[in-house]
Amino acid sequence: MSLTKFESMLKTNNIYFFDLVEFEEIIIHYLDFGKHSLAKKAVKLGLEQHPQSVDLKLLQVEIYVFEDELDSASTLLKKIEKIEPTNDEVFLQKGTINSKKGFHKKAVLDFKKALSLTDDKVDIWSLLGMEFLYLDDFTNARLNFANCLDVDFEDYSALYNIVYCFDMEKEHEQAIQFLTSYIDKNPYCEVAWHQIGRQYFILEQYNEALKAFDYAVLVDESFIGGYLEKAKTLEELERYKEAIDNYLITLELDDPTAFAFVRIGECYQKLDKYEAAISYYKKAVHEDPLLDRGWFLLTNLYYEVNNYEKAAHYVAKAIKIDEDNSLYWRRYSEINLKLNFFEEAVVGFEKCLALNDDSPEIYIGLTDVLSFLGEFDDALKLLLKAQKVYKEFAEIEYRLAGLFFVLNKEKYALDHLVSGMKLDYDYHVILSEIYPTFFENAKVQKLITDFKKANE
């Protein structure tokens, strides 16, 4: 009735009188429904009719805070505090302002003061918990959220936050103890079963995790998160067919997701059912064309079955989405080597180095391609750079031996050959593939034979 009367007043520009309680109800209604402009009008009119009302002034503070007019809010709060120094709402709003300003330690003190002035403590415990989270004080955060849970056993927000605190402190066993105790009191809570399953999963206790997720979906047969986690756990247990079945349940319960399609594809790939895997990877990229991981999984599958043309097509799509992913460029180079596109392979390996992927495989792969293209000086410079980073690598030493030989620096070549054999004698056979002329050289053959005899 009051609301209708107030809105009628706004339309007609007539001024009606409302008592204090009516104004408070009208303002709170508008705030609850996000109608802040109407709430502001109601506060303004309310204060014109009841200028001494502390409650209306506090609602004005709340609007200031919402609109980030924090200085105005603080100024008004100081005036209110002089009138009612023991009003818990004053300290609640002071804490909210300090929190917004990033002064979380001050906010904690304000909320603690508010806590001491009220019997309605639940909301304040929740606010305190959040402030301690901002301060990375997970122990105190957890204790405050636990207070909320003691009052309302179904406060799942508090439950999640408590588990989050355990997670951040990597106290997974303690989390399991806490959740077990909670489940003893509330055995039909799918959220708790789900969370205890997560803890067992993190600890790689997959059979225990699976039991927990089974209970979660038994309690709530439409619990998508439970089925997803159950499917992931079954994957870890290499029960891929059952994992697929659970992912398929999530597709029935909600709109299809690229994530589920990808996971189903990976399960089929592990079962060596490549056609089914390809089908689901294609569904994933159809669902989300910007899912570079989906394109890359298609790349790898076609690479595995030696279909390098299709692999090249799909890796290009992955790179177009994320051109700063060195893993994609590495695969790009490997594919182009298979297709004998050596210049393109060089581009890919050089891109990896530019992206700080300077693993020995990149140096060696690029060296071999440059050598094949006859760019021996560039190959040598690159390999010497690699040697500074990766000392005592047989793969590098043998290649240096071959390169120095090609560049007519026989002494250096033989020195690196010896270094390579000291590190890994058997690997010397690589020379027959990448530097056959060097390998077949009489001095080289003698040195290899003599080294073997000396070390038998």
Note down, in words, how this protein is organized.
It is a single chain. This protein has 456 residues and is mainly α. The protein is built from 28 helices and no strands. The chain is elongated and about 110 Å long. The mean pLDDT is 89.
Briefly summarize what is shown.
The chain is an all-alpha fold and 456 residues long. The chain has helices at 2-12, 20-32, 36-49, 54-66, 70-83, 88-100, 104-116, 122-134, 138-151, 156-168, 172-185, 190-202, 206-219, 224-236, 240-253, 258-270, 274-287, 292-304, 308-321, 326-338, 342-354, 360-372, 376-389, 394-406, 410-423, 430-434, 436-440, 442-454.
Rg over C-alpha atoms, rounded to the nearest angstrom: 34 Å
The helix-and-strand class reads mainly alpha
Tell me what portion of residues adopts beta-strand conformation.
under 5%
Report the total helices: 28
What is the helix content?
Answer: over 70%
Mean pLDDT: 89
**Biggest β-sheet description:** none
Counting DSSP E segments of at least 2 residues, the number of strands comes to: 0
Sequence stretches where pLDDT stays below 50 over 5 or more residues:
none
How far is the first residue's CA from the last residue's CA?
A: 102 Å
Q: What string, H for helix and E for strand, traces the elements in order?
A: HHHHHHHHHHHHHHHHHHHHHHHHHHHH
Using the alpha-carbon principal axes, give the shape: elongated
What features would you highlight for this structure?
single chain, 456 residues, mainly alpha, 0% strand, elongated
Topology:
Elements lengths: L1 H11 L7 H13 L3 H14 L4 H13 L3 H14 L4 H13 L3 H13 L5 H13 L3 H14 L4 H13 L3 H14 L4 H13 L3 H14 L4 H13 L3 H14 L4 H13 L3 H14 L4 H13 L3 H14 L4 H13 L3 H13 L5 H13 L3 H14 L4 H13 L3 H14 L6 H5 L1 H5 L1 H13 L2
